[in-house]
Amino acid sequence: MTADYRTQAVEDPTVVVQELYRAHAGSPDFPRLVAEHFAKLFESPNAFKKIPALNVHRPPETFRDGALVRFRAMVQDTSLSTEMYLAKHSDGTCGGWGIYEPESASSSSATDVDYANLRECNVLWATSVPAESDWCGEEMDGSNTPTQTDSPSPSSSRAYKYPHPELGHVGIQIKLYERENVESFKASDVVTFVGILSTEPCGLDQTQDILADAPTLHVLFTKSHAPNVVPRPFPRVSRSNRDGVLLSISSNSPATPAEDTAQIREELIAWIADEALGGDRHAAEWILLSCIARVQSRHPPLLPPPLVVSHFPPPPPVPSTAPWSAAPLPTLSAVLGLLLPLSHTLSLSLDSLNKSTFTPESKDEDLHAGVLQLPQGTVLLVSEGGVREGQLLERGVLNVRALQEVMDAQTLAYVFPFSRFAFPTDIACVVLAEGRRSAFFRAELSVPIRASPAAVAALYKPREAVKVPPREKLDAFRDLVVGARGGTVVVPEGTSEHIQAQFVSARQDDRSVTPDDLIRWMTVSKLYALSLHEPTLSVETWQRAKAFDDQRRALVA
Amino acid sequence: MDVDGASSPPLRYTSLPPSSAPVPTPSSPGPSRATPRRNRQQSDALGLSDNEAQAVEDDAPQPSRRRGRARNHMGADVPIVKDGVGEKVQEAFETFLRTFTEEVDLAPTPASEAGVPSAPDGELIYIEQIHTMRDFELTTLYVDYGHLIKLDETLAEALTKQYYRFLPFIRRAVHNLVAEFEPDYLKINPTAAATDSVNLESREFNVAFYSLPLVSGIRDLKTERIGTLMSISGTVTRTSEVRPELLYGSFICEVCGGLVNDIEQQFKYTEPSLCPNPICGNRTAWQLQIDTSKFTDWQKVRIQENPSEIPTGSMPRSLDVILRSELVERAKAGDKCVFTGTFIVVPDVSSLGLPGGENATLQRESARAQGGTAASSIGGAGVTGLKSLGVRDLQYKTAFLACMVQDADGYRRNNVRGEENGEESNTDAFANSLTDPELQELQHMIQDEHIYSRLVGSIAPTVYGHEIVKKGLLLQLMGGVHKQTPEGMHLRGDINICIVGDPSTSKSQFLKYICSFLPRAVYTSGKASSAAGLTAAVVKDEETGDFTIEAGALMLADNGICAIDEFDKMDISDQVAIHEAMEQQTISIAKAGIHATLNARTSILAAANPIGGRYDRKKSLRANVAMTAPIMSRFDLFFVVLDECDEKSDLNIAKHIVNVHRFQDQAIDPEFSTEALQRYIRYARTFNPKMTPEAADVLVEKYRILRQDDASGASRNSYRITVRQLESMIRLSEAIARANCKTEITPAFVREAFSLLRQSIIHVEQDDIDFDEEELRGEREGDRRPRASSHVDGEDSQGVEMSGLQSGVDDMYEPGASGANGPSSHAPSRATSQVPQPQGEQGGPAQQPKPKRRMVITHDKYVTLQSLIVLHLSQVERETGTGMDRDELIDWYLELKEEEIQDVEELEYEKELITKMLRKLVKDNYLIEIRGDVQDSLPPSMEESSGQQTADSQEGNVRVYYMVHPSVDTESSSSV
Q: Which intervals carry biased composition (Basic and acidic residues) (chain B) (predicted)?
């Protein structure tokens, strides 16, 4: 497969499909053949990068009909009905992938459609990945994206299918011809679809008489993503200084484990504390632990513990001349965005609680996205700073419940007519509460912030005012956080003996110590070890983590 | 009537302008319907090719006069091919309708001549139905598919496989029969026939099949099922309005003014291709005559997959179902229905507006949605110039053409619960749906003798201990058998369970486990329930202003389990609703002018916190839980989960938690995977176990014991024992039988049920153990509690074996022991008669001087001691294979307690305590007491042993050995 052929495939994928069909006429499983062929063609990362990426900066309108594109997307809706297509036209040519019979050919045989040639294809709806950080997008799509147009492209006509319709995004109808693993695409999965872009009537408008067209991607092959989209090694390895490219990923040279993890960790905590938490390092360390928490297992449930940062001052009063929406986001939001590939900030107010919907809901056979329909691995920062006195209406109550359920069980209910189904999520939550505890949410972990009144304004300083560390430092921070998110910690026999013994004696001394405490200590200590990039939990780390938790409890009490 | 359809004439029934030709035949739709089909699908075994024609029977709103397209099946130049097989099917079906009687056992010889019914005696139900159709002006003949299979399996199979192909033939068969038995009914206005034959309208008859053996889900519909007769189930999510659909159009030629009748409309608006007037030659200019065209009612409903059929993590699929004539308005939004009919392919809505012109024969479906006939009745003013639009090919989508709608709950066989006269067929049907390895695994499980306890071990593996609760959960998943009295009253089979316990004792984990295990389970919290409601809510639709009912948690869990955490914190209104749901299995709604009774057939799994945070053992269960007695009594089982604070269990819990964090799912590694367990439970639920007479006797006896217990006030019941508990016991027995995959309930199952119930309702609160009182009670023969006697019967299956074994042991020792101690000390009735002696020996002297310290320990301590002793003994047994000498055991205990013992007095106290403890354990069937040397009891050394024993006993006291009672599960005893 020469580069030329590859170029041709990028230029005119339809022709390649047709040629392939000619070569393999009568193959019983042609769609799989296509998938394999193209997947192989673009196997190497370099070749793959050659495929133009479809994203907010390059929306579908900027491509010509029939172009080959890759689209990193979140599967939003899989409830669309399957479609039938003519896999073989009357003249023996290939059908599907947006290839239709020319009018002249079809006229002769209009009434004699051979139903035996009909095949099914699955249709789903995908949107650009919500909560994705800019740096993550750049890393995945390459920096060769055309200079960002000043106006973030106005969102698709079906903005309600994106969790945060106010933000720019792309929504596309996906047609999958290879049906082997089609059931494996679940809602909120992040997948890169590679296929032929065109415009077709949208299968969503079941109930409407007039069908609007929607950009449609006829999928050739797909690529699934690691939970963090941009994987980083665990334990951390040192970067080669050139270009800041990760050695272990780009080449086979043995990775040298980084020596300075503990130091980087301290620097990271200090940076978070100074930039976003008024210098409170203790709270910053808890934020760090929350950022690396994820669902480790559902059976038994080992879920990320939600964290409440209490006594977090409300945003400084906005001059009455400013529009309401100008209430500033906590600076922590920007800081998390710089560190994490997937993070989102939810600024709660009674108005937003009562008006928006947190859960996806199917209306007229069309699944509207909910605010919480976020890809797995998102860190959600919930700010209660905007809440004022007032009435929480029914929808607000339901929204609060939905978020509480995400925190407690990592499931999100999707509402369908006459039924609701819980779908798994993996969203680590950090709640910024004004009072001693959160107004709405129960959380296992709670830590008060100790910021001097003078520092309050700095908690809400604008994004631009954040002192971004030098590139290398920032890369190291990201390696630490993202790597820890992907890592696992082993609890060796010795440590577990120690933990058990300690628990038993703790119970002897104090009956108020419950198994729940042990569960929390285990969770925290494992996160602590992860944050140190230690693949095994040592007794020492356990003790430190426990002391760390005890310190927190002392502060709360 | 002239049903000359067999030799379908090539030309349409046309009525030329009155001047040019007389009407050839009174229009008879039969043949005309069949013809177009037959001329195209001969070769297609699946009958696919005619789908399009039928499927697209769409009275397009745009008659488009200019559409000059070749329509081969309308063209007279296309040779008509006869479908010989179809004719045969028609004949066979006619015979079936003519001859079928309910009593038929053997297939009668088919009628040789169609005209002569060769019916046997007995009611010809289908002929009767034809008469009824006339009386009630119905046009649909309902055929039980079971009858069809019974009488003519070949026909049934042919119909199933190629339903779509044979559909016109079976309809013609009905038409023929109506023509024969109710000829007048054939025409809508028979009296007008004489005057104006042109305006004669003939009726369309439909055949509706029902009671197909298998009901598929929407997800099962694959392309290979197209055209076959099948049943699917789903929940109706929306219904279109009912609209007329054009079946046969009458057209006036705009050139010569001639009338063309009965142009069949195949899912699309179809004009005659050529004016039959030989001198006209018009192909394009037609005008629809509404008054002479034939219409039928038409409705499209959208159905959505039933929640129980959706694979985890997937979204529900939807499908359009097309209903016609008498079926319209049979399904309402929210109904769970079973549709019988066929899966078809129709050109997609979405190609509307764009499709390549020549393909316009296949009209978009949305045309219909637009109210097809409304448009077509307006006449020819349709969209023109479709041809000029786009070059895109059509897209196709699937729909379901239904001939029958039934309420899924009323659907006889394939009840969602997988029971009710399903019997063998259901069991087999489920077995057939499994893959080979799955089936093998299932068979392995069924054959296992100890499957019950192994299943229990695999329930909620994340929770450490609590075997009894797990037992209860397993039985809840199994469920009892739902019954219906002859009067039509439903008796619930669902088992309701309540777990009461200290905070952070994994109550919620049980609830969450059940919810993750069962697709049809809903988790809700009593505290938060008022927001969304356990019951249904009446909600006003913002757009339409209509009030609709929104399902509450109980309704969502219909046919499943509703897990309610913090049950005690529930609203009063919700408590009332729960009350109704638990007993009547319905929920009543009376809000905003809506009065409805909705099904809520759920098992309730509740978790409640004790009043005051911690469970107070001094108080009764009732006093510990904030629940009313009526609600309490509706729970079949109560479990109390306590936060035991002792080193050993703490260590175990710690180990468990740490291991979960270390190894995740490997740590808990249940014997059976969740999937295997789910399959087993689904399989087991197909059983409907029945009581054996022996079991019924045991049941009566156990109930008597419970009642007597209750009446005597000896037990500390939480509520009065009533028939409700008898029902509970039956349900539990049924569930246990199901867990064992048995169709019969044996006495052993009843005993297990009894012991569960007893532990649940009576042993729930354990007061402190007062040994003195215990013994006193034991001495007074008359005072023996009935429960004690039940112990002797043995509590459960193992219990029976045990008592047999034990009496055997006793017998063996009869000679030796009696020689030693005299008859008084060792009568087979264990504890009671032996009590006084050892007490005198050991406790006596030391305690004399002081006022006797009462031998009272807390139940907590009792349980701790009990598990300590049982574990130790079982360990010794494992190592040595023998029991343990009493003195040795006491020494071991005292050594254990050495540190705590301060003085001699205490030592004596402990010594007495352990002695009494042992005695009580024997009495409670935790230990067995054996007098003499165990080794000697082996049969070969029988004589020797008795000799030795005599010697032993001569030396002093007889040696007493203790062994763990065989019925004690050493694994679980610590958690009881």
A: 777-794
Cβ contact B658–A423 (<8 Å): no
Domain-embedded: residue A234: no
On whether any CB of chain A is under 8 Å from the CB of B666, the answer is no
Which of A304-308, B240-244, B725-729: highest mean pLDDT?
A304-308
Q: How confident is the prediction for chain A on average, in pLDDT?
A: 82
Q: State yes or no: pLDDT of A286 exceeds 90.
A: yes
Show the domains of chain B with their CATH numbers.
123-190+200-211 (3.30.1640.10), 214-349+394-410 (2.40.50.140), 427-526+556-763 (3.40.50.300), 767-774+855-932+960-975 (1.20.58.870)
Do A297 and B665 lie within an 8 Å CB cutoff? yes
pLDDT at site A284? 92
Residues A48 and A100 reside in one and the same domain:
yes
Statement: residue A434 has pLDDT above 70? yes
Q: Are residues A153 and A219 in the same domain?
A: yes
Say whether both A205 and A248 belong to one domain: no
The verdict on a CB contact (< 8 Å) between A110 and B358 is: yes
CB-based contact A301 B397, cutoff 8 Å: no
Beta-carbon contacts of B843 under 8 Å, excluding residues fewer than 6 positions away, are B908, B911, B912, B915
Minimal CA separation from A200 to chain B, in Å? 8
Query: Partners of B324 in the beta sheet?
Result: B298
Task: Give the closest of B222, B314, B664 to A78, CB-based.
Answer: B314
Residue B219, chain A, CB below 8 Å: the answer is: no
Chain A contact for B242 (CB, 8 A cutoff): no
Gap from A510 CA to chain B (nearest CA, Å):
10
For residue B937, pLDDT over 50 is answered with no
Average pLDDT over residues B184-190: 68
pLDDT digits (tens, 9 = 90+) for B821-880: 433 333 333 333 333 333 334 433 333 444 455 566 666 667 677 777 877 777 777 777
Q: Do A299 and B674 touch (CB under 8 A)?
A: yes
Q: Rounded to a whole number, what is the distance in Å from the CA of A341 to chain B's nearest CA?
A: 24
Residue B969: pLDDT band with limits 50, 70, 90:
low
What is the total count of domains within chain A? Answer: 3
The reply to whether A236 falls in a domain is no
CB contact under 8 Å between B313 and A423, yes or no, is: yes
User: Contact at 8 Å (CB) between B764 and B621?
Assistant: yes
Segments forming the whole domain that contains residue A116: 3-224
Question: Do A375 and A247 have their domain in common?
Answer: yes
pLDDT at site A319? 61
Phi, psi of B656 (to 5 degrees): -60, -50
Task: Name the percent of chain B lying above pLDDT 90.
Answer: 0
Domain of A437: which CATH number? 3.40.50
H helix count then E strand count, chain B:
36, 29
Q: How far apart are CA A394 and CA A392, in angstroms?
A: 7
What whole-number distance in Å separates Cα of residue A258 and Cα of residue A284?
A: 23
Question: Per-residue DSSP letters for B474-512?
Answer: HHHHH----EE-TTS-EE-----EEEEE-TTSSHHHHHH
Provide mean pLDDT across the span A254-280.
Answer: 84
Both A216 and A261 in one domain: the answer is no
Tokens representing A233 are 């090694």
Q: Is the Cβ–Cβ distance between B248 and B263 less than 8 Å?
A: yes
Q: Which of B221, B224, B336, B350 to mutate to test the interface with A (most CBs of A within 10 A)?
A: B350
Tell me the two tokens of residue B709: 């217990």
pLDDT tier for residue B190 given thresholds of 50, 70 and 90: low
The amino acid at residue B400 is F
Tokens 């005012």 map to which residue? A465
Secondary structure class of B107 (helix, strand, coil): coil
Give contacts of A 438-467 with B, CB under 8 A: none
What pLDDT digit, counting tens, does each position of B899-917 carry?
A: 777 777 777 877 887 887 7
pLDDT tens-digit readout, B261-287: 777 766 566 677 777 777 777 777 777
